[in-house]
Amino acid sequence: MASAALPDSRFDHESALNGDDLYVFGGKTADNGYFFPREEIWTCNVRDKKWICRVAEGDDISPPCNGAQSVVIDGIIYSYGGRLNNWGGDLEDVFGLNPQEMKWLRIATPPDEKKPWKRHEACLWAIGGRFIMFGGGCNRIPQDHRQLGAKSDWEVNDELYEFIFEKNREKGYWSDLRLDGLKPSGRRRAATETIDRHRGLIHGGYQKYEYVTDSFVIDLRAKQWIPIRFSPAPSDRSHRRICRLPHPGLKERNRFYLVGGKMKEKHFDHAFVLDFDSGESHEIHLCLDIEPIWLHTLHSVSSGDEIFQVFVMGGRESGGNLLIF
Fold first, then answer.
1. Where are the beta strands (DSSP E) in 63-210?
2. How far apart are CA 271 and CA 284, in angstroms?
3. Predicted confidence (pLDDT) at residue 284 exceeds the cutoff of 50
4. 236 near 213, Cβ under 8 Å?
5. Pairing with 298, which of 77, 110, 226, 268 sits 20 to 30 Å away (CA)?
6. 264 or 138, which is more confident?
7. Which helix or strand (DSSP H or E) is residue 272 part of?
8. Rounded to 5 degrees, what angle do the CA atoms 174, 208, 62 make?
9. d(CA 43, CA 16)
10. How many angstroms separate the CA atoms of 172 and 170, rounded?
11. What strands, in cross-sheet order, belong to the sheet with 270-275?
């Protein structure tokens, strides 16, 4: 274990907030395309804002990648998918990181199971003790059929799966989910967040050739997709991140913070507060001496009555900075 000022600059990485501790790992650099090893775990306590670099153990650690997604379930950080390199080598396995033991474990699945196709930048929610996966970017051409330097040929999809754990959480299996209602179009790099124990929110994203700005609720109890509208609607973009704003009062409020993003070659340095219950949105310009943010990660914590902090880590422009709003 070693202390340092900041993690190396990175983007398209993973981060997870477990209690008061923020965990950051994976991703790549913008300058030379270096992929960070997954056993290098950076932790930051959100109260004292101090970084510590730790080394995770495990006999079967995921190879370095970018575009993987993470959720926290019962104190364990689960990571799914990712892209090995820019030529389309996607991953399909689920890995679990135990923060107490600082150990990676590949979650075993039945050998004859029909798994989702390998993918990167999928939509993930932790809902009701399981995680739900939608969409993502897939490469349909086997890696061994490629020529070195060939342009990656990928596509987005609209598949919906749930990953169900067995009791010891060292094993699990995939199950195809079919819901009623208007289904979102296939996309990757969408902003997703859990609302409660049976619902999740998805906003925006990137289809193969265009950006989308629509919003949907996935409701597992009602078994349906529900389109929702925010007014005014945030402009079309992808690469955004969203987090639920904590509300310590007796009456829970479903508000979300939407930060950054990209549309074609334009990047954004402002945010939106989305009020899920009223359908209203409010734009906020960030008064920060940084470049616009995209391919970052985002989390929020409560600091007292009606006070919260939003943590933005890394990104294509902001590098290794931990930004606090």
1. 69-73, 76-80, 94-98, 103-106, 123-127, 130-134, 137-139, 154-156, 160-165, 172-176, 191-194, 199-206
2. 5
3. yes
4. yes
5. 226
6. 138
7. strand 270-275
8. 40
9. 10
10. 7
11. 241-244, 255-259, 270-275, 280-285
